[in-house]
Amino acid sequence: MQVFNNIELQVSPACIAVGCFDGIHIGHQKIIREMCGYAEEKGLTPTVFTFNSSPAAFLSNSSPRALITQNEKMNIFENLGVEKCFSLDFSSIRNVSAEEYVQNILYKQLKARAVFCGFNYRFGKNALGNSDYLKELCTQLSIKAYVCSPICYGKTVVSSSKIRSLIEEGEICTANNLLGKPFSLQNVIVEGNHNGRTIGIPTINQNLPAEFVTPRFGAYASFAYIDGTRYNAVTNVGTRPTVNGTNINAETHILNGFKGNLYGKEIRTELLYFVRDEKKFNNLNELSLQIKQDIAFIEEHKIYQQYS
Q: In the chain, where are the structural domains located?
């Protein structure tokens, strides 16, 4: 997949999915799959037009916490069949009117011949354009415009804001169902205090980026991906009150008998199931016993097998 950080004049006619796609949840995935299917049917280039930062940061001075990294976002696009992705800094087009956006950017420069968006899509300066206006402007230019209806999970409309709330509340299973994949943390392993080793439960530590949504503090069943191999694991998200910790991090104990030095290596940790809230124990031995109980609970309820 080709990735562009600026608008560049294209030659081939394109089918374009437009949106922030901040979590690429199951609703976003539907839009992109339908776009790619139409592109294949009509011989158009499957393309995404999105942003590398949230427009909300510019429009309301508050940016929603991220659900995925930019690299993960690009990988998902590519796996869904996207061939070109325009991922722009929102500030570069924040003052472009709705009309200019469709006529000059989508139609003239990116050669859009079909456009796909979600039902709640907003565009143009001050977000004055909506999905109905997009269809109107596209019709004037003989561009096919498709507005995808909302996706519901039970009675819940799938949205990135709902997923953030679920993660913060510890409803990780439901959040994962809405995401269409496990929520993950992907960053470099940092050195901790080595307390886990003293109780026979070595752990790896990952700091939580400030821009990321913060899961409910507590213990989770998890997967750790190391050099392409998936390991069962148990992860505590929080401040480690038993050892008087202060910074928020994810501390993961890898099962399957894994041994090795991972400092400085970037790994992905997927949260699968919320087991219990974080608590302060009287000593490390009590903590060790609780972790063993957590693992027994996870194995008894066959949590890992549910994701096989």
A: 2-149, 182-307
User: Structure tokens of 167?
Assistant: 């993660």
Residue 231 bridge partners (DSSP): 224
Amino acid present at 89: D
Task: Give per-residue pLDDT as tens, 294-305.
Answer: 999 999 999 999
DSSP label at residue 12: S
Q: Is 23 helix (H, G, I), strand (E, B) or coil?
A: coil
| CA atoms within 13 Å, Cβ hemisphere of 234 | 21
Identity of the amino acid at 196: G
- In sign, the C-alpha dihedral spanning 277, 280, 282, 286 is positive
Q: With beta carbons less than 8 A apart as the criterion, state whether 284 and 242 touch.
A: yes
Cβ atoms 115, 140 nearer than 8 A: no
Query: pLDDT per residue over 1-18, tens digit each?
Result: 999 999 999 999 999 999
Domain range 2-149, CATH class: alpha beta
- Look at the pTM and tell me if it is higher than 0.85: yes
CATH number 2.40.30.30 given to 182-307: yes
Report phi then psi at 283, rounded to 5. -160, 175
Burial (Cβ within 10 Å: 0-12, 13-18, ≥19) of residue 208: middle
User: Quick one: CA torsion of 59, 159, 306, 228, rounded to 10 degrees?
Assistant: -30
Cβ 250 vs Cβ 237: under 8 Å: yes
